[in-house]
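Tokens in:
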């Protein structure tokens, strides 16, 4: 008898005691039951471990793993993919919830159409108490047959990357570098997935994204007004970057370029995608310039040390 689950839900978490139980309960309440829930605890210091262990003791579909060191959000997101055994994979955030039919409807789409790489649903925001708030009305044309146009939509149009919490094909996902340890790593990964197939949006609100003061999108700018603080975002993705001289917008530019080069498109089609990237550069010229200015300031603030005999010999 084959006991391998068809779906893996990967839940990376760090100090998530505030909303974690809601996320776990929403997953366990799915009408589609052939799944495993893999939780990776990134050295939480609150009650996260106790919550996870209690639920794992009640339901054999839950696999709980804990790191004794906080290795950053990127490591934790990718860890649950490494641990996955299902044909399909979905990332889950500890502060979001899904409707009971989310997995059932997404699995049906991927099973029936091999050309779909990501299946997700319409999104509604909820507040700290779970009360319904605004509907997220952004709909990208990532269901177009032309992969260049799908890439352009993800590159140029404003969106919050909620598709990253859709259902994907694990095999395709593992053909990518997964989540990058840089700002907008989720958006770059979606671009890679868009070259593998088209995205399908279920026209129902089955995903509920929680807005609260401690979420990364609030702490680093999206919901607090103004531009994202991509420097602090980079430190959140990878703690080893703290205090380092980084050029987050330039890194994004590099990754967008690498996505095009690894797309498998013919040379002429890659050139057309590079034209979209040229427009992105023009639009992002101020953040690109700011990165350079900040890097110069950081260098100027570093103490100057005179070379010793050993260092110049």
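Residues out:
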């Amino acid at each position: 008898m084959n006991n391998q689950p068809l779906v893996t839900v990967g839940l990376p978490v760090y100090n998530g005691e505030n909303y974690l139980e809601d996320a776990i309960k929403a997953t366990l309440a799915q009408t589609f039951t052939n799944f495993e829930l893999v939780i990776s605890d990134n050295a939480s210091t609150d009650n996260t471990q106790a919550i996870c262990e209690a639920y794992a003791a009640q339901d054999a579909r839950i696999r709980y793993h804990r790191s004794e060191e906080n290795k950053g959000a990127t490591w934790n997101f990718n860890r649950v993919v490494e641990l996955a055994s299902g044909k399909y994979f979905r990332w889950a955030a500890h502060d979001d919830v899904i409707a009971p039919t989310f997995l059932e409807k997404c699995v049906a789409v991927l099973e029936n159409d091999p050309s779909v790489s990501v299946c997700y649903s319409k999104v509604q925001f909820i507040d700290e108490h779970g009360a319904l708030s605004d509907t997220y009305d952004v709909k990208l044309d990532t269901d177009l047959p032309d992969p260049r146009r799908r890439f352009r939509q993800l590159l140029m149009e404003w969106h919050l990357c909620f598709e990253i919490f859709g259902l994907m094909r694990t095999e395709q996902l593992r053909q990518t570098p997964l989540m990058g340890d840089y700002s907008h790593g989720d958006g770059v990964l979606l671009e890679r997935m868009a070259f593998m197939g088209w995205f399908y949006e279920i026209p129902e609100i089955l995903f509920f994204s929680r807005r609260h003061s401690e979420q990364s999108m609030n702490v680093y700018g999206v919901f607090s007004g103004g531009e994202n603080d991509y420097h602090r975002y980079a430190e959140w993705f990878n703690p080893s970057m703290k205090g380092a001289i980084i050029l987050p917008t330039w890194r994004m530019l590099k990754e967008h370029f690498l996505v095009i080069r690894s797309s498998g498109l013919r040379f002429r089609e890659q050139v057309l995608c590079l034209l979209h990237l040229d427009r992105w550069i023009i639009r992002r010229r101020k953040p690109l310039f700011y990165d350079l200015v900040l890097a110069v300031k950081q260098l100027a603030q570093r103490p100057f040390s005179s070379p010793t005999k050993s260092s110049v010999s």
